[in-house]
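Changelog excerpt: complex records now keep ligands as SMILES alongside chain sequences, and the structure block spans every component. Example after the change:
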Amino acid sequence: MSYHNPYTPPRKSATFDDQTLAEIRRAAATGIYDIRGGGTKRKVPHFDDLLFLGASISRYPLEGYREKCDTSVVLGTRFAKKPIHLKTPITIAGMSFGALSGNAKEALGRGATISGTSTTTGDGGMTNEERGHSQTLVYQYLPSRYGMNPKDLRRADAIEVVVGQGAKPGGGGMLLGQKISDRVAEMRTLPKGIDQRSACRHPDWTGPDDLEIKINELREITDWEKPIYVKVGGARPYYDTALAVKSGADVVVLDGMQGGTAATQDVFIENVGMPILACIRPAVQALQDLGMHRKVQLIVSGGIRSGADVAKALALGADAVAIGTAALVALGDNDPRWEEEYQKLGTTAGAYDDWHEGKDPAGITTQDPELAKRLDPVAAGRRLANYIKVMTLEAQTIARACGKNHLHNLEPEDLCALTMEAAAMAQIPLAGTNWYPGKGGF
Amino acid sequence: MDAAAQKESSRTMSVFDLSITPLRELNSALHNISAGTNDMNFEVINPRGSHSVAVGIDAPVTVNVHGSVGYYCAGMNDGGTVTVHGSAGPGVAENMMSGIVVIEGDASQYAGATGRGGLLVIKGNAASRCGISMKGIDIVVHGNIGHMSAFMGQSGSLVVLGNAGDALGDSLYEAKLFVRGTVKSLGADCIEKEMRPEHIEHLAKLLEKAGITDVKPEEFKRYGSARKLYTFNIDNADAY
Ligand SMILES: Cc1cc2nc3c(=O)[nH]c(=O)nc-3n(C[C@H](O)[C@H](O)[C@H](O)COP(=O)(O)O)c2cc1C
């Protein structure tokens, strides 16, 4: 008896999908792990999985264009003589000169200043352009201490002790030789053209007891003027927040796993750390347990894209947010106008992430003077300011619809969750129920 | 004497007794030096292990601390001359920019960490991670140093008259290390290097600066970076 197999379409493995197969081949060909910029590309539970309820008979809204909805935020009220006053709770996250071009840093400063918000230095020190164009500048105190000096500490408006980053909690930095120009090399006291590894751990303190002494030293050096932030990656948010508060932080910066990076191993970006959605409630809980909610401010970051994300983060209890990737996109990163050049680099607009190679067609993540020239810092700063304005307006729109006259009055009760995961992580009732996993009653 | 006059007289004497005066007053006085008007000599008594003594100095003052200090003494010193007549806790002279810091006793971990300039002299021993991440500072230790010293050292010189512990100069960049005694082990990418005449000369100057006359530069061995970790993985340099 003859047997004829009817045609079946080829079936690819869900486990060994095309990306996975390509990565195995890439690893086999090179013997080195993949390094890239940007944040997590896989889908993880996020703010999209939460919705606002809006007003109804029991809650009444504020008039959209008439009634005030305040967006201001004050950071560093705990110990600093000179707290920071911002007009919007959307701040610019720390991104290093070195990873970014001088023009890009200047554009971030300009955009932040127009918007009445702060921008932040990064691993590599403070540049004069950046200081000059940023009304409010946060100076990062990183494990590498590249470019660290007391003059810049004193001309900063706040100091951010970086313990970790969401993209790589527990990992150090990396700036590959291609991006080490004379100026970058000089700022970091290293030879030109070599790979620069930034330590993952601070050289002169280890645990929370040491951190407390370190923060005290920074306060003494700067005469107790500046707010001191502590930035941690989203790993153990309850304990990290509690320990940061114990160590004397004025502000805790919490960066979820989606957070961007200039250059990190892909395996790190995709597999270490928790989504920001899962980090906020434990951090807020720690602050509340210590009686410090709103006294020590909480800034959250990692995948913030819109005013809705801002509003959700604030409703969960944060005081402000920080944006990295979105700010770069507003400047012009991954813009389709450079598609032809992205193609030449073997990629496409929206997917370009080889930021460590310094060949960015948009002139942002590069130290090549010709490429860097493509970014006009004035126009790019304007775009960033527009974008921040839109996000602020969006957040206000939602807050008014929830009847709030300040973004900080948004609360968990304004939200519902679309998925069980989001309900569990954010401790927000699943839509249509009054229950979330972990809460009794079932 | 009324309170104001008393305060005035103690200021001209510039003696800070940390058993009665808050540390803040000392550091604040050190940060408010205006040329010609102030006494540039400060005596600190009863430090009793206080942290952050004389941090953030940015003028050519002289500070004598009589007793032992805690963490980060003379941190970020820029131009001052600080002498601790006692021992120092962790991170003494961390991130020093310029000036001189002398520890008459021993120093704990991370002495001179990330220092960018100036001279740190430790007359006793230094614990682990001495000169970690150093970026231009010169450190002279009369005694021994602990493990992982000069880790990721970028620039500057570390001179040790005694012995060095394990993993000296791990992941070293361009810092120069000179050890007179034994080295328990070298860290990754750190190798012994030839002492050429220019190194003898460089070391002789450092010893002189540190006031050391009874030791010859020829007695030291030099260690530096093999520079093999300089590119992430040289075999695959074109792959990333
Ligand atoms: C190009 C780039 C460079 C960065 N450099 C630093 C840095 O130097 N220090 C730091 O703490 N975080 C750094 N980050 C992380 C950001 O501060 C921030 O945590 C993150 O970008 C927030 O997530 P988002 O990109 O999804 O907005 C960098 C991020 C990017 C995209």
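Chain A touches chain B through 39 residues (CB under 8 Å). The two ends of chain A are 59 Å apart (CA to CA).
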